[in-house]
């Protein structure tokens, strides 16, 4: 279970970091994409910052509530991304869907691991 957690979490974090990198280094292209997806262009940089904080939250061992909120935030962002891509006609819903699957696997395996350590 630990292996499943770490593989899914690391792959998810890599996907999110790739997106965050584009938010900060290809900002103009990302703004155009966000407008094509019917989102405001100004949200690109704040979303990048929030995703970085979410990654820190998921990797955090200190505060369980912070970790839960980070998982929830990513869940909603990915659902909205999937819907925006599907409804706007902009292709490439697959990366967001793949990230959502990895997020769910990471979350469920983390829950199982935390239940096991709570019993011990």
Q: Could you walk me through the main structural features you see in this protein, from its secondary elements to its overall organization?
A:
It is built from five helices and no strands. The longest helix has 26 residues, at 94-119. It starts with a helix and ends with a helix. It is elongated. It has one domain. It has helices at 2-25, 27-36, 44-59, 64-88, 94-119. It is mainly α.
Give a quick precis of the structure.
The chain is mostly helical and 120 residues long.
Question: Which helices and strands, and how do they pair?
Answer:
Blueprint: H1 2-25, H2 27-36, H3 44-59, H4 64-88, H5 94-119
H-E string: HHHHH
The number of distinct helices, counting runs of at least 4 residues, comes to 5
| Major beta-sheet overview | none
Which percent range fits the helix content?
over 70%
Distance between the termini: 16 Å
**Average of per-residue pLDDT values:** 90
Features:
elongated, mainly alpha, 5 helices, single chain, 84% helix, 120 residues
């Amino acid at each position: 279970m630990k292996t499943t957690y770490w593989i899914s979490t690391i792959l998810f974090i890599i996907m999110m970091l790739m997106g965050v990198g584009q938010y900060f280094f290809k900002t103009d292209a990302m703004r155009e994409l966000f407008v094509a997806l019917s989102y405001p262009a100004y949200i690109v940089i704040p979303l990048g910052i929030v995703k970085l904080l979410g990654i820190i939250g998921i990797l955090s061992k200190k505060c369980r509530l912070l970790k839960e909120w980070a998982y929830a935030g990513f869940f909603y962002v990915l659902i909205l991304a999937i819907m925006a891509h599907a409804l706007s006609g902009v292709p490439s819903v697959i990366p967001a869907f793949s990230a959502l699957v990895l997020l769910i696997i990471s979350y469920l395996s983390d829950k199982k691991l935390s239940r096991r350590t709570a019993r011990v």
